[in-house]
Specification:
There is one protein chain. By secondary structure, the protein is an alpha+beta fold. Helix content is 40%, strand content 19%. It has 11 helices and 9 strands. It has a 7-stranded mixed sheet, sandwiched between helices. α1 runs antiparallel to α2 and α5 crosses α10. The mean pLDDT is 87.
Protein backbone atom coordinates (compact mmCIF):
# COMPACT_ATOMS: atom_id res chain seq x y z
CA UNK A 1 0.00 0.00 0.00
CA UNK A 2 2.87 2.34 0.83
CA UNK A 3 4.43 1.75 -2.60
CA UNK A 4 1.09 2.41 -4.35
CA UNK A 5 0.61 5.67 -2.47
CA UNK A 6 4.14 6.90 -3.25
CA UNK A 7 3.74 5.93 -6.91
CA UNK A 8 0.47 7.89 -7.08
CA UNK A 9 2.26 10.87 -5.46
CA UNK A 10 5.02 10.74 -8.06
CA UNK A 11 2.56 10.58 -10.99
CA UNK A 12 0.39 13.34 -9.58
CA UNK A 13 3.34 15.69 -9.08
CA UNK A 14 4.55 15.00 -12.63
CA UNK A 15 1.12 15.80 -14.06
CA UNK A 16 0.93 18.96 -11.95
CA UNK A 17 4.28 20.14 -13.32
CA UNK A 18 3.19 19.25 -16.88
CA UNK A 19 -0.15 21.15 -16.69
CA UNK A 20 -0.05 24.01 -19.21
CA UNK A 21 -3.19 25.84 -18.16
CA UNK A 22 -5.68 26.11 -15.34
CA UNK A 23 -8.12 23.71 -17.00
CA UNK A 24 -5.55 20.88 -17.12
CA UNK A 25 -4.49 21.61 -13.54
CA UNK A 26 -8.07 21.34 -12.34
CA UNK A 27 -8.41 17.98 -14.09
CA UNK A 28 -5.33 16.72 -12.18
CA UNK A 29 -6.85 17.92 -8.90
CA UNK A 30 -10.14 16.16 -9.53
CA UNK A 31 -8.40 13.04 -10.81
CA UNK A 32 -6.15 12.52 -7.76
CA UNK A 33 -7.90 14.26 -4.88
CA UNK A 34 -11.52 13.60 -5.73
CA UNK A 35 -13.69 11.15 -3.74
CA UNK A 36 -13.41 8.62 -6.54
CA UNK A 37 -9.67 9.19 -7.12
CA UNK A 38 -6.93 6.49 -6.87
CA UNK A 39 -5.62 7.73 -3.50
CA UNK A 40 -9.03 7.34 -1.93
CA UNK A 41 -9.37 3.96 -3.59
CA UNK A 42 -6.04 2.73 -2.11
CA UNK A 43 -6.87 4.00 1.37
CA UNK A 44 -10.10 2.07 1.37
CA UNK A 45 -7.99 -1.09 1.68
CA UNK A 46 -6.71 -0.05 5.11
CA UNK A 47 -9.26 -2.34 6.69
CA UNK A 48 -7.10 -5.28 5.71
CA UNK A 49 -4.08 -3.87 7.55
CA UNK A 50 -3.03 -4.61 11.10
CA UNK A 51 -3.85 -2.19 13.91
CA UNK A 52 -0.21 -1.02 13.93
CA UNK A 53 -0.01 -0.32 10.19
CA UNK A 54 -3.33 1.59 9.86
CA UNK A 55 -2.16 4.83 11.60
CA UNK A 56 1.03 4.85 9.55
CA UNK A 57 -0.82 4.45 6.22
CA UNK A 58 -3.41 7.02 7.25
CA UNK A 59 -0.72 9.57 8.09
CA UNK A 60 1.10 8.78 4.86
CA UNK A 61 -2.11 9.18 2.83
CA UNK A 62 -2.85 12.57 4.44
CA UNK A 63 0.75 13.74 3.88
CA UNK A 64 0.56 12.78 0.20
CA UNK A 65 -2.77 14.59 -0.17
CA UNK A 66 -1.27 17.72 1.40
CA UNK A 67 1.83 17.48 -0.82
CA UNK A 68 -0.27 17.21 -3.97
CA UNK A 69 -2.63 19.97 -2.80
CA UNK A 70 0.29 22.31 -2.08
CA UNK A 71 1.86 21.53 -5.48
CA UNK A 72 -1.46 22.29 -7.20
CA UNK A 73 -1.79 25.58 -5.32
CA UNK A 74 1.73 26.66 -6.27
CA UNK A 75 1.18 25.66 -9.88
CA UNK A 76 -2.13 27.54 -9.89
CA UNK A 77 -0.38 30.75 -8.81
CA UNK A 78 2.29 30.19 -11.44
CA UNK A 79 -0.24 29.70 -14.23
CA UNK A 80 -2.30 32.74 -13.17
CA UNK A 81 0.83 34.91 -13.20
CA UNK A 82 1.71 33.62 -16.65
CA UNK A 83 -1.82 34.40 -17.90
CA UNK A 84 -1.62 37.97 -16.55
CA UNK A 85 1.83 38.44 -18.10
CA UNK A 86 0.58 37.24 -21.50
CA UNK A 87 -2.44 39.53 -21.31
CA UNK A 88 -0.29 42.53 -20.40
CA UNK A 89 2.07 41.74 -23.24
CA UNK A 90 -0.81 41.45 -25.69
CA UNK A 91 -2.34 44.74 -24.52
CA UNK A 92 0.89 46.70 -24.30
CA UNK A 93 0.59 50.22 -25.71
CA UNK A 94 3.47 51.59 -27.70
CA UNK A 95 3.70 55.09 -26.24
CA UNK A 96 6.06 56.14 -29.02
CA UNK A 97 3.32 55.85 -31.65
CA UNK A 98 1.61 59.12 -32.69
CA UNK A 99 -1.71 59.71 -30.97
CA UNK A 100 -5.01 59.36 -32.76
CA UNK A 101 -6.93 62.59 -33.14
CA UNK A 102 -10.38 62.61 -31.56
CA UNK A 103 -13.10 63.95 -33.81
CA UNK A 104 -14.97 66.76 -32.08
CA UNK A 105 -18.11 68.54 -33.11
CA UNK A 106 -18.55 72.25 -33.63
CA UNK A 107 -21.28 74.77 -33.10
CA UNK A 108 -24.05 74.96 -35.67
CA UNK A 109 -23.82 78.08 -37.89
CA UNK A 110 -27.14 79.35 -36.53
CA UNK A 111 -25.90 78.89 -32.97
CA UNK A 112 -22.74 80.83 -33.80
CA UNK A 113 -24.71 83.74 -35.31
CA UNK A 114 -27.22 83.84 -32.44
CA UNK A 115 -24.43 83.85 -29.83
CA UNK A 116 -22.58 86.58 -31.73
CA UNK A 117 -25.72 88.75 -31.82
CA UNK A 118 -26.47 88.04 -28.16
CA UNK A 119 -22.93 89.03 -27.14
CA UNK A 120 -23.24 92.27 -29.09
CA UNK A 121 -26.51 93.34 -27.46
CA UNK A 122 -25.52 92.16 -23.98
CA UNK A 123 -22.52 94.46 -24.36
CA UNK A 124 -24.98 97.27 -25.12
CA UNK A 125 -26.89 96.65 -21.88
CA UNK A 126 -29.66 94.39 -23.15
CA UNK A 127 -30.97 91.36 -21.27
CA UNK A 128 -32.02 88.08 -22.89
CA UNK A 129 -35.70 87.21 -22.43
CA UNK A 130 -37.40 83.95 -23.39
CA UNK A 131 -40.95 82.68 -23.59
CA UNK A 132 -43.06 79.67 -24.61
CA UNK A 133 -43.17 78.39 -28.20
CA UNK A 134 -46.77 77.24 -27.66
CA UNK A 135 -48.42 80.61 -27.16
CA UNK A 136 -51.78 82.23 -26.44
CA UNK A 137 -53.48 84.08 -29.27
CA UNK A 138 -53.71 87.13 -27.00
CA UNK A 139 -49.94 87.53 -26.58
CA UNK A 140 -49.12 86.46 -30.15
CA UNK A 141 -51.57 88.84 -31.80
CA UNK A 142 -53.99 90.93 -29.73
CA UNK A 143 -51.45 92.41 -27.29
CA UNK A 144 -49.38 93.42 -30.34
CA UNK A 145 -52.18 95.35 -32.04
CA UNK A 146 -53.42 92.47 -34.24
CA UNK A 147 -57.20 92.49 -33.55
CA UNK A 148 -59.12 89.28 -34.16
CA UNK A 149 -60.16 88.97 -37.80
CA UNK A 150 -57.82 91.75 -38.94
CA UNK A 151 -56.18 91.09 -42.35
CA UNK A 152 -52.72 91.92 -40.93
CA UNK A 153 -52.77 88.44 -39.36
CA UNK A 154 -52.66 86.86 -42.82
CA UNK A 155 -48.93 87.61 -43.10
CA UNK A 156 -48.33 85.31 -40.13
CA UNK A 157 -50.63 82.40 -40.86
CA UNK A 158 -49.82 79.91 -38.14
CA UNK A 159 -50.32 76.41 -36.77
CA UNK A 160 -53.29 76.54 -34.41
CA UNK A 161 -53.80 73.96 -31.66
CA UNK A 162 -57.11 75.44 -30.55
CA UNK A 163 -58.79 78.75 -31.40
CA UNK A 164 -56.83 80.42 -28.61
CA UNK A 165 -53.58 78.39 -28.57
CA UNK A 166 -51.04 78.29 -31.41
CA UNK A 167 -47.36 77.84 -32.24
CA UNK A 168 -45.94 81.34 -31.96
CA UNK A 169 -45.31 83.11 -35.26
CA UNK A 170 -42.64 85.48 -33.91
CA UNK A 171 -40.86 86.14 -30.62
CA UNK A 172 -42.83 89.37 -30.13
CA UNK A 173 -45.07 87.69 -27.49
CA UNK A 174 -41.99 87.64 -25.26
CA UNK A 175 -41.91 91.46 -25.57
CA UNK A 176 -45.59 91.69 -24.60
CA UNK A 177 -45.12 89.37 -21.62
CA UNK A 178 -42.01 91.27 -20.45
CA UNK A 179 -43.75 94.65 -20.66
CA UNK A 180 -46.67 93.22 -18.64
CA UNK A 181 -44.24 92.13 -15.90
CA UNK A 182 -42.82 95.68 -15.68
CA UNK A 183 -46.32 96.96 -14.77
CA UNK A 184 -45.94 100.19 -16.71
CA UNK A 185 -42.53 101.12 -15.32
CA UNK A 186 -39.47 101.51 -17.52
CA UNK A 187 -36.85 101.00 -18.61
CA UNK A 188 -37.21 97.79 -20.63
CA UNK A 189 -34.22 96.67 -22.71
CA UNK A 190 -34.33 93.09 -24.00
CA UNK A 191 -33.64 90.83 -26.95
CA UNK A 192 -35.75 87.72 -27.50
CA UNK A 193 -34.11 84.84 -29.42
CA UNK A 194 -36.03 81.67 -30.23
CA UNK A 195 -37.75 79.38 -32.70
CA UNK A 196 -40.96 80.44 -34.46
CA UNK A 197 -43.46 78.73 -36.76
CA UNK A 198 -45.53 79.81 -39.75
CA UNK A 199 -47.57 77.93 -42.32
CA UNK A 200 -45.34 78.27 -45.34
CA UNK A 201 -44.14 76.25 -48.30
CA UNK A 202 -40.52 75.21 -47.74
CA UNK A 203 -38.12 76.35 -50.44
CA UNK A 204 -34.66 77.91 -50.68
CA UNK A 205 -35.71 81.04 -48.77
CA UNK A 206 -38.76 79.93 -46.75
CA UNK A 207 -39.29 77.44 -43.95
CA UNK A 208 -42.26 76.46 -41.79
CA UNK A 209 -39.94 76.88 -38.78
CA UNK A 210 -37.03 79.24 -38.38
CA UNK A 211 -35.12 81.25 -35.79
CA UNK A 212 -35.82 84.85 -34.87
CA UNK A 213 -34.29 87.51 -32.66
CA UNK A 214 -36.30 90.55 -31.67
CA UNK A 215 -35.25 93.53 -29.61
CA UNK A 216 -37.24 95.98 -27.51
CA UNK A 217 -36.37 99.21 -25.72
CA UNK A 218 -38.98 101.18 -23.75
CA UNK A 219 -38.09 104.25 -21.69
CA UNK A 220 -38.64 107.97 -21.55
CA UNK A 221 -37.44 110.04 -24.52
CA UNK A 222 -36.60 107.13 -26.83
CA UNK A 223 -36.46 108.37 -30.43
CA UNK A 224 -36.06 107.10 -33.96
CA UNK A 225 -32.48 108.31 -33.77
CA UNK A 226 -31.81 105.79 -30.97
CA UNK A 227 -33.20 103.03 -33.18
CA UNK A 228 -31.09 104.02 -36.19
CA UNK A 229 -27.91 104.26 -34.10
CA UNK A 230 -28.54 100.81 -32.60
CA UNK A 231 -29.13 99.22 -35.99
CA UNK A 232 -26.03 100.87 -37.44
CA UNK A 233 -23.86 99.41 -34.66
CA UNK A 234 -25.43 96.00 -35.27
CA UNK A 235 -24.83 96.10 -39.04
CA UNK A 236 -21.20 97.14 -38.79
CA UNK A 237 -20.41 94.62 -36.05
CA UNK A 238 -22.02 91.63 -37.78
CA UNK A 239 -21.36 92.41 -41.46
CA UNK A 240 -18.28 94.62 -41.37
CA UNK A 241 -17.25 98.17 -40.52
CA UNK A 242 -17.58 99.27 -44.16
CA UNK A 243 -21.28 98.43 -44.42
CA UNK A 244 -23.83 101.22 -44.75
CA UNK A 245 -27.51 101.05 -43.78
CA UNK A 246 -30.67 102.66 -45.06
CA UNK A 247 -34.17 102.71 -43.60
CA UNK A 248 -37.24 102.43 -45.85
CA UNK A 249 -40.84 103.09 -44.78
CA UNK A 250 -42.85 99.93 -44.13
CA UNK A 251 -45.82 98.63 -42.13
CA UNK A 252 -46.05 96.50 -39.01
CA UNK A 253 -49.14 96.53 -36.77
CA UNK A 254 -47.09 96.82 -33.58
CA UNK A 255 -44.85 99.76 -34.62
CA UNK A 256 -45.56 103.26 -35.93
CA UNK A 257 -43.68 104.50 -37.84
CA UNK A 258 -42.25 101.26 -39.22
CA UNK A 259 -39.16 100.69 -41.36
CA UNK A 260 -37.23 98.02 -43.22
CA UNK A 261 -33.47 98.15 -42.83
CA UNK A 262 -31.16 97.40 -45.78
CA UNK A 263 -27.38 97.04 -45.76
CA UNK A 264 -25.07 97.87 -48.62
CA UNK A 265 -24.14 94.87 -50.72
CA UNK A 266 -20.81 93.32 -49.75
CA UNK A 267 -20.28 91.85 -53.22
CA UNK A 268 -20.68 94.92 -55.42
CA UNK A 269 -20.30 97.68 -52.78
CA UNK A 270 -23.48 99.37 -53.97
CA UNK A 271 -22.82 99.12 -57.71
CA UNK A 272 -25.50 96.47 -58.31
CA UNK A 273 -25.12 92.70 -58.84
CA UNK A 274 -27.06 89.43 -58.91
CA UNK A 275 -26.95 89.06 -55.10
CA UNK A 276 -28.57 92.44 -54.43
CA UNK A 277 -30.79 92.22 -57.54
CA UNK A 278 -28.93 95.17 -59.09
CA UNK A 279 -30.07 97.56 -56.31
CA UNK A 280 -26.85 97.77 -54.29
CA UNK A 281 -28.83 97.03 -51.12
CA UNK A 282 -29.94 93.86 -49.26
CA UNK A 283 -32.93 93.76 -46.90
CA UNK A 284 -31.97 92.50 -43.43
CA UNK A 285 -34.65 93.27 -40.81
CA UNK A 286 -37.77 95.17 -39.85
CA UNK A 287 -38.08 97.75 -37.07
CA UNK A 288 -39.97 100.77 -35.85
CA UNK A 289 -41.21 102.81 -32.91
CA UNK A 290 -43.47 100.83 -30.56
CA UNK A 291 -47.12 101.58 -31.35
CA UNK A 292 -48.89 103.56 -28.60
CA UNK A 293 -51.65 100.92 -28.51
CA UNK A 294 -49.07 98.22 -27.66
CA UNK A 295 -47.67 100.36 -24.86
CA UNK A 296 -51.11 101.08 -23.43
CA UNK A 297 -52.20 97.41 -23.53
CA UNK A 298 -49.03 96.52 -21.60
CA UNK A 299 -49.83 99.13 -18.93
CA UNK A 300 -47.41 101.89 -20.04
CA UNK A 301 -48.43 105.53 -20.35
CA UNK A 302 -47.79 106.22 -24.06
CA UNK A 303 -47.52 109.97 -23.36
CA UNK A 304 -44.64 109.37 -20.96
CA UNK A 305 -42.93 106.36 -22.49
CA UNK A 306 -41.78 105.63 -26.01
CA UNK A 307 -39.76 102.78 -27.42
CA UNK A 308 -38.44 100.98 -30.44
CA UNK A 309 -38.48 97.37 -31.56
CA UNK A 310 -36.71 95.36 -34.24
CA UNK A 311 -36.81 91.81 -35.50
CA UNK A 312 -34.41 89.76 -37.57
CA UNK A 313 -34.00 86.16 -38.74
CA UNK A 314 -30.63 84.63 -37.76
CA UNK A 315 -31.18 82.21 -40.67
CA UNK A 316 -31.10 85.13 -43.11
CA UNK A 317 -28.20 86.79 -41.30
CA UNK A 318 -26.19 83.56 -41.52
CA UNK A 319 -27.09 83.10 -45.20
CA UNK A 320 -25.85 86.60 -46.00
CA UNK A 321 -22.73 86.37 -43.87
CA UNK A 322 -21.62 82.90 -45.01
CA UNK A 323 -22.97 82.96 -48.57
CA UNK A 324 -25.49 80.12 -48.01
CA UNK A 325 -28.06 79.85 -50.79
CA UNK A 326 -30.66 77.52 -49.27
CA UNK A 327 -32.25 77.89 -45.80
CA UNK A 328 -33.01 74.15 -45.75
CA UNK A 329 -29.30 73.39 -45.28
CA UNK A 330 -29.61 74.57 -41.67
CA UNK A 331 -32.18 71.91 -40.80
CA UNK A 332 -31.25 68.81 -42.81
CA UNK A 333 -28.17 67.87 -40.70
CA UNK A 334 -25.96 67.17 -43.70
CA UNK A 335 -22.52 66.56 -42.18
CA UNK A 336 -20.81 67.84 -45.35
CA UNK A 337 -22.49 71.22 -44.88
CA UNK A 338 -21.87 71.43 -41.14
CA UNK A 339 -18.17 70.52 -41.44
CA UNK A 340 -17.59 73.74 -43.38
CA UNK A 341 -18.10 75.69 -40.16
CA UNK A 342 -15.61 73.73 -38.05
CA UNK A 343 -13.01 76.02 -36.52
CA UNK A 344 -10.05 75.49 -34.25
CA UNK A 345 -10.98 76.87 -30.85
Amino acid sequence: MEQKLKELERKALEEVRAASDLKELNQVRVSYLGKKGPITEVLRGMGKLSAEERPKMGALGNMIRETITKAIENKNVELENEAVAKKLEAETIDVTLPGRSVATGNRHPLTKIIEEIEDLFIGMGYKIAEGPEVEQDYYNFEALNFPKGHPSRDMQDSFYITEEILMRTHTSPVQARTMKKHEGKGPVKIICPGKVYRRDNDDATHSHQFMQIEGLVVDENITMGDLKGTLEVFAKKIFGADREIRLRPSFFPFTEPSVEMDISCKICHGEGCRVCKQTGWIEVLGAGMVHPNVLEMAGFDSKKYTGFAFGMGPDRIAMLKYGIEDIRYFYTNDIRFLKQFAVQE
